Amino acid sequence: MPKLTPPLVAPSLLSADFSRAGEEAAAVEKAGADWLHLDVMDGHFVPNITFGPLMLQALRPHVKIPFDVHLMIQPVDLFLEPFVKAGANHLLVHIESGPHVYRTLQHIQALGAKPGIVLCPATPPEAISEVMGIVDIILVMTVNPGFGGQQFLPSQLEKIRKIREMIEKTGRDIRLMVDGGINHETAPLAVAAGADVIVAGTAVYGQKDYAEAIKRLKSFS
Ligand code: DX5
Ligand code: ZN
């Protein structure tokens, strides 16, 4: 395998100890995390419920790294402003979340945050062709969204490759992220396919030494 550029690492707070959320967020920042990934779930778009803007507001004083907010909620528009006000830097919305995603992405831009688009495993890469000119981030789900600790779906690697080609064609600076089942074995596969940011829940918060875990994800050793 040719030498790969180390990806940015965004630990997902979903696998942290929620009773010590502030400490857990600060701990991964100290351990070398690039972004903090925050999974917002509504029990409707996905079969699980997590937290809302109040949680971000409570966490914000504890960390400086960007809040990368993955919105698994439907409808989404009503909550964009509260999340930005609470400290979100990136707002990632699902292409499957409604018929007016373009408007949602414009709204995120107008609020001063970076808009991102997310694809579930069953969604083809072509589904996002019309939003390539507006997004700063594309997130390919490598598990079905809703829970941490699931197994990486290798079927998504071809989609990552195709989206990397689509990004190159735009000439725009778009980050390509992967989320779900990422560990030191699957990260190199995703990065070789074209991903440059990896989300990791279990592979960081499930480990004793967060710094070691992040280093391992970046170095593929
Ligand atoms: C799942 C979430 C992921 C999750 C990843 O719906 O979007 O961010 O926290 O957890 P791991 O890395 O354990 O698969
Ligand atoms: Zn996520």
TrEMBL record:
In short, the EC number is 5.1.3.1
SUPFAM superfamilies recorded for this chain? Ribulose-phoshate binding barrel
* Keywords in alphabetical order: Carbohydrate metabolism, Cobalt, Isomerase, Manganese, Metal-binding, Zinc
Pathway per its UniProt entry is: Carbohydrate degradation
The entry's protein name is Ribulose-phosphate 3-epimerase
**Binding residues for a divalent metal cation:** 37, 39, 70, 179
- What is the scientific name of the source organism? Entomobacter blattae
Which family does the record assign?
Belongs to the ribulose-phosphate 3-epimerase family.
Q: Where is the signal peptide?
A: none
Kindly list the positions annotated as binding substrate: 12, 70, 146-149, 179-181, 201-202
From the UniProt record, which GO molecular function terms apply? Answer: D-ribulose-phosphate 3-epimerase activity; metal ion binding
CDD domains named in the record: RPE
Taxonomic placement: Bacteria, Pseudomonadati, Pseudomonadota, Alphaproteobacteria, Acetobacterales
One example of a Gene Ontology biological process annotation: pentose-phosphate shunt
Pfam families documented for this protein: Ribul_P_3_epim
